[in-house]
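Service request form, structural biology core

Requester: graduate student, group of Dr. S.
Request type: structure prediction, single chain
Budget code: on file
Notes: please return the result as structure tokens.

Sequence provided:
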Amino acid sequence: MELCNGCGTCRQTGSDVMCPTYRATEEEIATTRGRANLLRAAISGDIDPSELYSERFQSEVLDLCIGCKGCQSDCPTGVDLAKLKAEVKHQYHEREGTGFREQLFANVDRLSALGSTFAPLANRATKVPGARTALEKTVGIAAERTLPTFQRETLVDWYGERGPQVDAETATAGVVLYPDTNTNYSNPAVGKAAVEVLEAAGVRVAVPELGPTGRAAYSQGLLEAAADQGRELLDDLEPYLDRGWAVLFVEPSDAAMVVDEYRSLLDDERVETLAANAFGVCEYIDDRRLDEEVSFDETVTAEGPLTFHGHCHQKARGADHHAVGVLRRAGYAVDPVDSGCCGMAGSFGYESDHYDLSRAIGSILRDQLEERRHADRTETTVVAPGTSCRTQIGDFEGYDRPTHPVEVLARALET
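Core staff response, request fulfilled:
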């Protein structure tokens, strides 16, 4: 907290990520500096420390930090307010308990598993007249928001029946593709595309059944639950790490969780081993130039330009450029947007009391995409690696739901 020197970089809105809520509201309290100053004032005794646990501070100040981690990379001194928020929320839950909606979002992996088990019936349930209104009144999920749909066959199920297509003896490397909640239960096509591209480059892939990284629980400030899930994941991944395998993620927020948050959440020497061997899928392909081992169909890559929107957590790690490099070498014309946060931020954009702010932040991104459209005078395909980003952009009027960069690569594979 003392890293905040008051320079006000979080009030600059010309480029980078920080600070999405200030860009939308133009209020000082919505900046990284504003929140850090209030936390510092409470700790130093300038205001009553109990104010940190008041409903007003929690709902009007802390909850409006969307955890994009833009401050970690954009702030000159590296203030990480998302990490501070998680700790204060944790202490708040210790004192005041945890609400039903917070528990629901923290356990989204378990909920998604149920949705997958009962698909397609579970998908129809939310389309029953009055169901969305009931969800908003009882749980606080915005009725206007597009909800995830579930697939009966999960990514893990699909791979379990299919098995690896690259022999261990001839493989250039071995990797675990992490089946995150959205990819496993709602959008296995992204995971399948990643498997196809990696195998085309001679990589042996495993897709084991793994629990959550703890990202959802961490985002709700339930740090003990997040730590328990992190330790369980380390146990499950240890045999692969001992063999020298990398762990790949198609979802940027899960990659950031194991690379960054585990270091402050877990006292376990295996954390550094995992962090050193954890990559976004396009990051891994780019780092090892695996795309140079693959043949891409020029008739597909020449179809039209791509507009790339990077994920905030990738930008915080300095890892948002990898997909652009891979796509360009594959033959695509790619135009990365100097965009901020999409405003969805996991569960934040689903919450009815945050919906308007989420859309206000998203409108800034939409304006940037519209400027790019008019400047190019041509239709472009938007690609985005983050589930939240694809959901928010897909809800923009006149926009289709974007695809993941690895899906674009898989579509161009020569057969």
